[in-house]
Automatic annotation (TrEMBL):
Heme binds at residue 396. This is Cytochrome P450. It comes from Dictyobacter alpinus. Its cofactor is heme. Gene3D superfamilies: Cytochrome P450.
Length: 451
């Protein structure tokens, strides 16, 4: 009997209970990960959920994380979910939308530019950018924490990877990426949103920014090559011409660093600041660590990548507020998992962060505990226990660089200023827009300039 025949004999995954017509839509919208943790406890590592007119198969917990890492290379497709997002900006093929050998080739091309060593190659510049933003804030100024970090993170990534500071284009970037992702990928907005003048104007500026970056690199020769230089060189290589075959695809690939900063590092910096302000004793430890990093001038790469208190606070922030709490894919073929069948073409949710909230891995999992990562505990090292950046072949390419950037940004902030939450008693709700975020609800006030 063939493998396919055996798979066909397996039962479908059990169905999570839900409301008539709505299914599990309300529970998933209210707190997706908490809902998935509850279903994992009741139904096991694979189950189905219905939300309105959609049905999805959920693979969850350490079993799913281990399976996808070891056996998932050829079982999932990203094309159906990400293709239209790229087309919106003229990119027929882009890293998020392709699989297989082409995807592996593009990752290999981009990997050096998105590495920790490349990002931290000019620490004085990165610190200067953060300090310049912070120094512009007068004492008593109130600002959404996310916008503060977006100003810092996007300029750092832009200057380090593309020799370009977004400046006044920041809001155009935010609008373009947010609308397109929410329409095509997360499907939280209707298609007509892309017809609105506010989006069309933002999209034009966003695409013009990509064109300007490419034009500047074509007109300039630098000793140190960056991401854009690598893209331009690869566009002349027959191996990459299918993926970088047009000016639109080259420009879109060149905008990658800015997309990465908007919804990853900036959101995580915001979450980390929130947790530190919520836990004064940990904040005090991190502030002392930040001052130590700057005590001899500027921190070194080795210090930023070290496993001190700031690193532990960053790791715990990623556990509780993951950049990618689930991974959405389409089944590329029939396959079996945990005694059940998954059919080709089914929508699959890989619930990578269910493990983050299982007490067998993390005692008292909803408590912010930075000691989890100590040499004695190493809770995150258990198999399948920690996956804040997604999993599988599309694992976040800049995961290591993002961790280092979060540590450096928070260290610079804690050393330079003291911030306080504007309304510490207000309840904040995490929403997906398109990534998990407090949005602009989490506001902070500058208490003092320290250094």
């Amino acid at each position: 009997m063939t493998v396919d025949a055996v798979t066909d004999l397996l039962p479908s995954p059990p169905l999570a209970p839900g409301l008539p017509l709505l299914g599990s839509a309300l529970a998933m919208r209210q707190d997706l990960v908490a809902f998935l943790v509850e279903q994992y406890r009741q139904l096991g590592p694979i189950f189905r959920v219905r939300a309105l007119n959609q049905e999805m198969v959920v693979m969850a917990g350490p079993e799913a994380n281990t399976f996808v890492t070891k056996e998932g290379t050829d079982k999932f497709s990203s094309y159906e979910l990400w293709h239209k997002f790229g087309l919106e900006f003229g990119a027929e093929q882009h890293l998020s939308a392709i699989d297989g050998e082409n995807h592996a080739q593009l990752r290999k091309l981009f990997k050096p530019a998105y590495s920790v060593s490349r990002l931290l190659a000019d620490i004085p510049m990165l610190v200067d950018i953060a300090e310049a933003v912070l120094n512009r804030l007068p004492v008593g100024e109130e600002i959404p924490a996310l916008y503060l970090f977006r100003m810092i993170v996007t300029e750092q990534l832009g200057r380090a990877l593309a020799n370009y500071a977004p400046g006044d284009n920041l809001q155009y970037m935010i609008t373009s990426v947010r609308f397109a992702l929410n329409v095509y990928v997360t499907k939280q907005m209707p298609n007509f949103m892309l017809k609105l003048p506010v989006y069309q104007r933002a999209r034009q500026h966003y695409l013009k920014m990509g064109q300007d970056i490419v034009a500047e690199h074509r007109a300039t020769t630098r000793t140190t090559k960056d991401l854009i230089d690598g893209i331009l060189t690869a566009s002349q290589d027959p191996a990459f011409q299918e993926m970088l075959s047009s000016e639109e695809q080259i420009a879109f690939a060149s905008l990658g660093p800015f997309v990465a900063g908007l919804d990853t590092a900036a959101n995580e910096c915001s979450f980390m600041l929130y947790e530190l302000l919520k836990h004064p004793s940990i904040l005090e430890q991190c502030e002392a660590a930040a001052d130590e990093l700057f005590s001899q001038g500027l921190p070194t790469q080795e210090q930023i990548r070290g496993h001190g208190v700031l690193h532990s606070a960053m790791m715990e922030t990623l556990r509780m507020h993951s950049i990618s709490p689930v991974v959405n894919r389409i089944a590329a073929k029939d396959f079996a998992f945990a005694g059940h069948q998954i059919k080709k073409g089914q929508n699959v949710i890989i619930a990578t962060t269910v493990s983050h909230f299982l007490p067998e891995f993390y005692p008292d999992p909803y408590t912010f505990d930075i000691e989890r990562y100590s040499a004695e505990r190493k809770e995150h090292k258990q198999r399948g226990a920690y996956a804040p950046f997604g999993i599988g072949t599309h694992l976040c390419l800049g995961a290591g660089a993002a961790e280092a950037q979060i540590v450096l940004v928070l260290a610079t902030l804690l050393h330079s200023v003291r911030l306080e939450r504007v309304d510490p008693q207000a309840s904040l709700r995490v929403r997906n827009d398109p990534a998990p975020t407090f949005g602009y609800s989490f506001r902070v006030r500058l208490r003092e300039h320290r250094h």
